Amino acid sequence: MRKCINIFYKCFIILSILIASLLYAEFTVYGLKYVKNYFFNYDNLKYAFPPGNGYFAPSPILPHTVHPPFLYRGKKFDKKKDPETIRIITLGGSTTYGFCVETKDTYPFQLEKILNEKGYRVEVINGAVSGYTTVHSLVNYMLNLVYLEPDIVYIYHGINDVVISDDPETFKTDYSHVMHALGSEWYEHSIIYTILQNRFMFFTKLKYRYSSLKSSLSRLFKFSPKSENSLRRSLEAYDPVNNILMKTIISNIRHITVVAKEHNTKLVYSTFATMYEASEKEKKKLAAQMKKQFGRKPNWFNEERENLIALKLDFLNNEIVKLGNELNVPVVDIAAIGKKAENFVDEIHQSPKGNKLQAEKISQILIANKMIYKESNSLEIKE
Q1: What is residue 346's DSSP assignment?
Q2: What is the DSSP string of 78-115?
Q3: In angstroms, what CA-CA distances link 142 with 46, 146, 249, 374?
């Protein structure tokens, strides 16, 4: 009995020391001490994540995938570009930054690997930030990325823009009608919160289970929430041609293009891929994958929302192709890979296999359009 008490006492002491150390680090060294310095505050954009801090808090316990002083996910790089190396920067949200995949499995990392293996001297900088829209990427490119002197900029945006409210009575072109302080809740910077979330997806699973329960109860009692009624009306009355949100997205991409060309930087556009229009067989496969990894299934039950997002993305993809033809910018058709469950980890984020396919498609476009060369590693600047 005494031996058991001694073991319990020692375990209690060790646990107390660990908790005390964690709390000390939380409030004095890492975690909550850095809340005020954790975000850039752009006046018109409310709060926006600084590059690289989309998922990873500054904690010594968690693996770092970003590097100072630039904080972009991937390999370290020098601000001053090597004149013999072609520098490519990718713009986007979490689908480019890499959601639930290791750094080596993101498509920017894979793109650099593929091109280097083919004999091209190329470096690819992942300039994406989770949650970013074309508005955020436009500002980030103009204020930060342009000074890294990229030779090529690849734009992969879609889902974060099309889910923005496009009510003409409240819509603002800087998205300030819906943008709030992203992740600015104090507890999201806690080491304890970060460990539970990043290591075990605890809060993500909790949120998804709550949403699933709410939806199940709605179907059980045949109750249609106001949001679903609103979605149904939006789908019936949706006019993409005259939609102010669609015009704003294309305008943002056009502005990025103008700034890039002023700095002799080439552009590559892309269509956006999702699983919303996949076959029922592939959707069931994805549902099984997500149930195993995240503890939830896709939101296929909300047919109105799914159809509205698919409609907006289809129109946006077509507009991006038109813009590419107008401005003589190559377009990579990534939307075509959104038909197989094995290419995705959820409805919109790609798996390592999907990211590799995207990287291969981008490399093919770059080579086919003679934007990179093996001989001199220089660029062909199209007028």
Answers
A1: S
A2: -SSPPTTSEEEEEEESHHHH-SSS-GGGSHHHHHHHHH
A3: 17, 6, 16, 30
121: helix, strand or coil: coil
Q: How many CB atoms lie within 10 A of CB 9?
A: 10
Strand order in the sheet with 122-126: 66-67, 72-73, 122-126, 86-92, 152-156, 266-270, 331-332
Residue 267 buriedness (CB in 10 A; 0-12 / 13-18 / 19+): buried
Cis preceding linkage at 69, omega within 30: yes
Rounded to 5°, the CA angle 360-96-381 comes to 60
Among residues 159, 123, 124, 155, which one has the least CA distance to residue 140?
A: 155
220: confidence class by pLDDT, cuts 50, 70, 90: low
Quote the mean pLDDT of the chain. 76
Q: How many domains does the chain have?
A: 1
3-class state of residue 222 by DSSP: coil
Torsion of Cα atoms, 160 then 161 then 162 then 163, to 10° = 50
Residue 286 lies in a domain: yes
**Model pTM score:** 0.74
Q: Is residue 147 in a domain?
A: yes
Phi, psi of 182 (to 5 degrees): -60, 120
- Which distant-in-sequence residues (6+ apart) come within 8 Å of 280 by Cβ? none
At 253-280, the pLDDT tens digits run 999 999 999 999 999 999 999 888 788 8
For the record, the structure tokens of 347 come out as 């409805």
Residue 273 within any structural domain of the chain:
yes
CA distances in angstroms from 109 to 45, 89, 106, 123, 283, listed in the order given: 29, 11, 6, 9, 28
pLDDT confidence of residue 374:
79
Residue 260 near residue 268 (C-beta atoms within 8 A): no
Q: How large is the average pLDDT for residues 299-322?
A: 81
193, amino acid identity: Y
Distance CA 196, CA 154 (A): 34
Evaluate whether residue 53 is within a structural domain. no
* pLDDT of the residue at 68: 43
**Residue 229 belongs to domain spanning:** 69-174+201-368
CATH of the domain at 287: 3.40.50.1110
Tally of helices (H runs) and strands (E runs) in the chain: 13, 9
